Amino acid sequence: MSKSKKRALIVVDVQNDFCPGGALAVAQGDEVVGPLNKLIEEFLERGEPVFKSRDWHPEKTKHFAAYGGAWPVHCVQNTKGAEFHPALIDDMHIRVVSKGLGDEDCYSAFDGTDLALQLRRLGVEEVWIGGLATDYCVKNTVLDALKEGFQVKALENAMRAVELKPGDGEAALTEMREAGAEINNSADFEKLSPEEMDAQIAALQDRVDREAIRENLRLSPTERIEKLMRMQLSEHHE
After folding, report:
1. Is the distance from CB of 143 to CB of 128 less than 8 angstroms?
2. What's this model's pTM, rounded to 2 decimal places?
3. pLDDT tens for each residue of 201-226
4. In sequence order, what are the beta bridge partners of 12?
5. 189 pLDDT exceeds 70?
6. Higher pLDDT, 171 or 194
7. Which of 19, 75, 106, 137 is the catalytic position?
8. Quick one: average pLDDT of 184-203?
């Protein structure tokens, strides 16, 4: 039986100030919450690591335009704007990585943090990355993950771009792809390989009907729900 590589999910900067209504809002930035929540649930259910990165700026920093930087004040420590989007799943098992604590820009979740060390200690080989924003913090996190030697899946439907210039988002995806990242839609991962099926089955108890489990894993989420509903209706009618 093949053993699938250990993975981690990195959710980049899904904070109030980067979502609609925030100080540095990304258009439709809140749309990443749905697909990311689905992945967070799946990773936690499998016991795989989940990380959330956040900008955690002091009140005065050269990152802000008022002190020589390029950006308006945003994600100041212990403010509402720095909090994660309220609909984003919170769980005691999710690890939080704070960046931008000084004057440096720190776009990447690896920049000035111990994220790489934590991932290596957990034995992670592959990271899945989504969040805000495609053309800044997500892109830089992806590129740094590759430089650190991790395999990377960048989740195109779970990120949105700032687009200071039209086309910045697409250019960022191209740069990530050319650097070695695999660009995917998170829904692509609903279809598991035989090795991934076996890895999930191995985590379950012995003496189970493995072929029945494989058949369920091949179903789409909608098909799984429909099957469960049919089973429940059948039980009620017995």
Report:
1. no
2. 0.79
3. 565 555 556 666 667 666 666 676 77
4. 53, 131
5. no
6. 171
7. 137
8. 62
- φ, ψ at 121 (rounded to 5°): -65, -30
**pLDDT value, residue 175:** 98
Q: Mark whether 114 is an active-site residue.
A: no
Strand, coil or helix: what is 115?
A: helix
Convert 152-178 to b/e letters by CB count within 10 Å (16 or more is b): bbbbbbbbbbbbeeeebbebbbeebee
Tell me the backbone φ, ψ of residue 35, rounded to 5 degrees: -65, -30
Q: Which of 13, 17, 30, 198 is catalytic?
A: 13
Is 13 tagged catalytic? yes
- Average model confidence (pLDDT) for the chain? 88
Helices vs strands, H then E, count in the chain: 7, 6
Report the distance separating Cα 52 and Cα 7, nearest Å: 15
116-126 per-position pLDDT tens digit: 999 999 999 99
* Catalytic, out of 52, 99, 139, 153: 99
Going by C-alpha positions, the residue among 31, 29, 28, 35 that lies closest to residue 15 is: 29
19 is catalytic: no
